[in-house]
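User: I've been trying to design a sequence by hand for this structure and keep getting stuck. Would you show me what you'd pick, starting by listing the structure so we're on the same page?

Assistant: Good idea, let's start from the same input. This is the structure you sent:
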């Protein structure tokens, strides 16, 4: 697979890649609470967004069919303000494969509640990185780049920086938009802060943890499960440092929304002597899931 090549070949490998689509993105648009609404517009919108996400060239690299990043986007329309104006939420899930296994690990499992856009049926979806032309395409492109950033971070240390920077450019160009989610003052938990945190040096340990967890942890478990699990503990310790400096941070919330179940699966099978320390760290840095982490101690008895 493309990103399991030995590191000393990585630079040459990246230079020689040609263009191809990167995402295998499923899109679903629903409006369950809107009675009597014309359903055709949602079907047409869904197909248009599918083509937008899967046909566009997002990076300079070539991805084979097997290497595309699996993404699922569910847009739930909660309010049809007018014929062409919609509000709702969007759930974004992204997964990448684990080396030498059929298992796919979740990179992102996130719900954005500030979804507000205009869409005219059959009108082409326009997007330009340096211009805010459509809130809908800006939303989709923002999450495409965030997913790419997370994916590349998981295979090479700080490999996702170029894609976070592109996502940040989208945020900057949307500062005059009337729709919510793009501005710092609106909330501490929105798109502005998601990408700001990823590029902020105060959260370097989060990105280090993403790399260590995936590349040195999960990807090594087939060959040596104990070494892989030990690297996951190192990733946890890096996250613990972030928590103690920035308790309750948005970025940590996003991370654990994707990973809490997986931590349970990884450490339920760990040696009993190792479990209490791991559980104590998890309870400290992700208190919302304290009961879930109890399963690590009680499982396999």
């Amino acid at each position: 697979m493309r990103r399991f090549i030995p590191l000393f070949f990585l630079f040459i490998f990246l230079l020689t890649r040609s263009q191809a689509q990167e995402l295998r993105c499923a899109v679903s648009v629903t409006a369950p609470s809107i009675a009597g609404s014309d359903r055709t517009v949602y079907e047409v919108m869904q197909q248009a967004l599918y083509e937008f996400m899967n046909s566009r060239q997002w990076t300079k690299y070539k991805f084979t069919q097997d290497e595309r990043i699996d993404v699922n986007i569910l847009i739930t329309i909660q309010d049809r303000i007018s014929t062409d104006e919609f509000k709702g939420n969007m759930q974004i899930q992204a997964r990448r494969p684990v080396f030498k296994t059929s298992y796919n690990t979740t990179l992102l499992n996130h719900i954005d509640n500030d979804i507000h856009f205009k869409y005219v049926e059959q009108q082409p979806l326009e997007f330009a990185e340096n211009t805010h032309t459509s809130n809908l395409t800006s939303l989709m492109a923002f999450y495409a780049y965030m997913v790419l950033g997370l994916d590349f971070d998981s295979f090479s240390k700080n490999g996702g920086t170029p894609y976070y920077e592109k996502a940040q450019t989208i945020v900057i160009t949307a500062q005059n938009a009337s729709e919510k989610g793009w501005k710092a003052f609106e909330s501490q938990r929105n798109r502005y802060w998601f990408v700001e945190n990823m590029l902020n040096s105060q959260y370097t340990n989060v990105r280090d943890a993403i790399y260590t967890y995936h590349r040195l942890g999960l990807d090594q478990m087939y060959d040596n499960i104990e070494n892989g699990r030990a690297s996951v503990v190192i990733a946890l310790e890096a996250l613990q440092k972030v928590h103690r400096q920035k308790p309750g941070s948005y970025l940590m919330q996003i991370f654990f929304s994707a990973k809490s179940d997986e931590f349970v699966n990884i450490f339920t099978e760990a040696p009993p002597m190792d479990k209490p320390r791991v559980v104590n760290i998890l309870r400290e840095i992700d208190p919302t899931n304290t009961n879930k982490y109890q399963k690590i101690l009680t499982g396999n008895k």
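That's my pick for every position. To get oriented when you compare it with your attempt: Residues 8-19 have pLDDT under 50 and may be disordered. Residues 51 and 174 are 23 Å apart (CA to CA).
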